[in-house]
Write a structure and sequence with these properties.
Blueprint (H helix, E strand, L loop, with lengths): L26 E4 L5 E6 L5 E8 L13 H8 L9 H11 L2 E6 L4 E8 L3 H13 L5 H18 L3 H14 L20 H11 L6 E6 L4 H6 L1
Parallel strand pairs: 2-6
Antiparallel strand pairs: 1-2, 3-5, 3-6, 4-5
Helix pairs in contact: 1-6, 2-3
Length: 225
């Protein structure tokens, strides 16, 4: 600093101390059905984030029906064995929860965020939509048309087109060369039966991991619940 008390901006200030990284402690256990659970208690707010990770994505799709993995994930909340699509939506509203899906080439992720006071009901909701989806034909048809509209709209986006061309150039015939949500050629051939077959083949608790973060009960209570 100059004698006048004004900082000399030609000099780089000395670096401060390196920050200390404190990773939260987590609990790991498995349920009797083989589902792995990772839990991190973080009770600053009465909220819980649940993420169900499954090691499959569009790579598991048949070549002529790429987009099956994405439509299967999207169809989970479009009705179950016990509830219609409208009733599933009402259950989400009642819980005050937010549900979302992400499908990549190699993974499927289901995300549910909710207040800790509805913990049991929220996990029950997640279990129902994952294990007992209805895959009603009319709902699957609607999702298929929505996906085709998304694909058509994406072709007007230079960024989307560039990514598609790059993937095809780099990976050629490998599944990585096709977009995870399918194309105008592959999506029309996906019906409700294809989603049922994909679900039966891939959605298994032994291959999944449930990650829970937030205002959680103690470990023993969590295992029971």
């Amino acid at each position: 600093m100059a004698k006048t008390g004004v900082a000399d901006r030609s000099l780089r200030p000395p670096p401060g101390p390196a920050p200390k990284i404190r990773l939260p402690r987590f609990t790991r256990f498995s349920l009797e059905n083989g589902l792995r659970v990772l839990a991190v208690r973080h009770d600053d707010m009465p909220e819980v984030s649940a993420r169900l990770l499954m090691p499959f994505g569009s790579v598991e799709d048949e070549r002529q029906q790429v987009g099956t993995a994405l439509l299967t994930a999207r169809a989970l909340t479009e009705g179950t064995a016990h509830k219609s699509a409208g009733e599933v939506a009402e259950s989400l509203d009642y819980l005050g929860a937010r549900f979302g899906v992400e499908v990549t080439h190699d993974n499927t992720m289901l995300n549910l965020r909710f207040l800790s006071r509805v913990f049991d009901d929220a996990l029950g909701f997640l279990a129902e939509v994952v294990a007992e989806p209805a895959f009603a034909s009319q709902e699957v048809e609607r999702l298929r048309h929505e996906r085709l509209d998304e694909i058509a709209a994406g072709m007007d986006e230079p960024r989307v087109v560039a990514n598609l061309r790059l993937g095809a150039a780099v990976f050629s015939e490998h599944p990585y060369g096709i977009r995870t949500g399918g194309t105008e050629e592959t999506v029309p051939g996906i019906d409700a039966e294809k989603l049922r077959e994909f679900h039966a083949r891939c959605y298994r608790p032994t291959a999944a991991t449930l990650v829970l973060v937030g205002d959680l009960p103690n470990t023993e209570d969590l295992k029971k619940r």
